[in-house]
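Entry for the shared binder. Reason: the reviewer on the internal report wants the predicted structure included alongside the sequence.
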Amino acid sequence: MANKTADIAIVGGGVIGWSCAWHLLRREPALHIVVIDPDQSRSISLRGAGGFRAQFASRLNIQISLASINEFKRFPETVGADIKFRQHGYLLYTADVDRAEDMQHVADFQRVHGVPVDELSISELKRRVPCLNTSDLIYAQIGPTSGYLDGPGVVRGYRTASIKGGADEMQAKASSVCATGVETDQGHVSAKHVIVATGHWSANLGLQLAVHPEKHQLCFALPAEVDPKWPFVIDADTTYHFRPYGDGILVCYNDPELSQQKFKVDDTPEFSLPAIERMFKIADHRTPGFVNRQNCSPGRAGFYGITPDRHPIIGKVDEIVIATGFGGHGVMHSPAAGLLVAEIILDGKATTVDISALGPDRFRKGKLIQESMVF
């Protein structure tokens, strides 16, 4: 095992780690960057639904999303990869009076912060997505600039461009980090700067980060009729949601029983059949005959890196730069995350978005940030 030396060592070969590498090399092409990961195929970035949105209830999430969407639009030109970027919208609906009122208030907040949101009549909702049972629905809205993309394509794009720009990969498992290097099972990596971007594994590096694994999964269905231009369709009451994917749809449901289970960071996320059965009960009511046991097949499972306030940690711990805990929004927020980390390292401070509130010490100080739009 040989020791290595680099200008920057990035722990984590998922979408956040490679975005950091790409943004740093774009600013400073001469940097020697090493990205450390034992198995990059385990990344949650390769397992998600590929949605992107600016429809959040916190200013920070909105600003990070807007900066990311701007970069996604230019991805083929800047990064050199087609990520199948489609702004077909995020469409949300509810049958609950109180939730409808909350959604209206949040939509007003989003518009103030530059996020367009259009309200839909129930008849218009039914026209746009005919498979929905709208008999009990009372409110719907769509964010027309949101949509979906090829999540694994984003990871591959950043990785390929970074390696082409001179970044090195190191297949190794990090055991500890400090401001001047990373200890791995393949030797020590000395570096002027260290970045931790390891998702739910970040709590396992001795830094006492408030991140834990939360299990999520998705599946695939082949209904009789799917419009490839449908938006991402979300039931705000249950989190049952779906979007076009190939010849069919990709189906998600944030199952409460799954999210309450406890896991260790190195556990393997197995697909849960009982959870898909619970989803079918919701689908039978909301989209009768559209998603069922006959046309739906198990997909993939993975762990979100979750923080107590469901906002990422972007900041420093003992001069180590942290970019983790994106809670399933890693792909969605990866462009802004990489840009902000590059600013922290090269400029001494992030300036594209004021992320001072996202520091890792906010949990100790009790300064948590609220986010109600979680699905």
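Summary line for the report: The longest strand covers residues 296-306.
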